[in-house]
Amino acid sequence: MKKTGTMILAAAMSAMAFTAAPALAQDRERTSVEAPEYPRGAERRGIEGYAVVEYTVAEDGSVAEATVVEAEPEGVFDRAVIRAIEGWSYAPAAAATAGMQQRFDFNLGG
Q1: What is the pTM of this model?
Q2: What residues does the TonB C-terminal domain cover (predicted)?
């Protein structure tokens, strides 16, 4: 079941074309992305939902200050999305880009 949930999550991430952040943030080229793992407890209990993360991309392209700003249900997917987004990287830029947002949907798909 773990593989199924993870595969559906990965497919959902690919299909959703990543939620757009402010216009300036769209100029940052993403160079590395990893999908969050479906939390085992949530998967076992059949819990689906989403989490929205707000973060800053530093000048060197690393992700900093990641915070969950919205989630349903609260607290279930937070750790998974923070861990994943902190593994993302972007192309270097002259200045940091604050206010980036990303939504992650967690669906078991039947």
Answers
A1: 0.75
A2: 23-110
